[in-house]
Amino acid sequence: MGKSFQVILFFTVLILRFSSFESFSVHEMFSAAKRMINWESCDTYWIKGDLKGLQNDLKTHLFGQPLVEEDLIHALVAHFSRKTDQPLLLSFHGNAGVGKTYVVEFIAAKLLRKGMLSKYYKSYIGSEHFPLNSDTEIYKTELEETIRSVTSKCKVSLFVFDEVHRIHGDVLNKIYSIIRASKLKSENHIDLGRSIFIFISNTGGKIITDLCTTYKEQGIERKNFRLVDFENYLIQEANSEGGLKSSELIANDCIDHFIPFLPLEREHLAACVQVTMKRDNVTGIDNEQVFIESVIDAAATFEPESKKYFAKKGVKKD
């Protein structure tokens, strides 16, 4: 819908309301006009902060990730409840296709009314936005300018860094220096307020899968997994490989939560297919279960080879 049409529509509604002698305050008119011309501002209308809605989305659309459901909601509730000017730093770990970026979409949608289209949301992909080590200084300058610009407009901002294992440590160190300056309230510091930084990496995927294999063979259901059993390993992995290993973010214990995304089993893939079929209104299939199994067999391979417990790439096709 074009802006000119929106403005015309607004004044049409306005005239109709006045013609029916309904009260319409100046504040109401201005608020309606802003929303109709695609305005976005840092107020309770645009900053939803709908954590209950997020929790419901995770329960409904995210499969096989009990630790994510538990720890993520806890971290966000604590962040927005406490009196602090410090950002929340989350590190998502796991193999490809297990839901890391999927969860980011849910967070953005429930935190910001415009979701990933919000001007308070910024995302970076290591190989795309920081491809050359020789341009590290340029990346650092641009990153600081962006963070300063976004947070100056709204304290509730969301910054996402995908493929962290492909981001030079000096770029990540720039984030640390910005956070440290904010904490110390140094001259010309950036007020990070209620900002959230999410780092996404495949780092730790193997150790997560190995632990899940061990627990499965011991008869331990994933709903009974403990976050601490995974988190300690993920901290070690972050210190030994990937972009975070050479970052001050790790050396100074800046990451608030290391969140493991578990490998998916066949039942979780089946649930994903069912949701997709419902969303796309797929009907007229004689044997739905057989169809779902055929989709999984065509799209996924399983590991370990001899036992085939987990999909190697989650819901991503090989």
UniProtKB/TrEMBL annotation:
GO cellular component, one term: endomembrane system
InterPro entries: ClpA/B, DNA/RNA_helicase_DEAH_CS, P-loop_NTPase, Torsin
Cleaved signal peptide residues: 1-21
Record carries keyword Aminoacyl-tRNA synthetase: no
GO biological process: cellular response to misfolded protein
SUPFAM superfamilies, per the entry: P-loop containing nucleoside triphosphate hydrolases (SSF52540)
Alphabetical keyword list: Hydrolase, Signal
GO molecular function per UniProt: ATP binding; ATP hydrolysis activity
Family under the similarity heading: Belongs to the ClpA/ClpB family. Torsin subfamily.
The protein's name in its UniProt record: AAA+ ATPase domain-containing protein
Organism in which the protein naturally occurs: Laodelphax striatellus
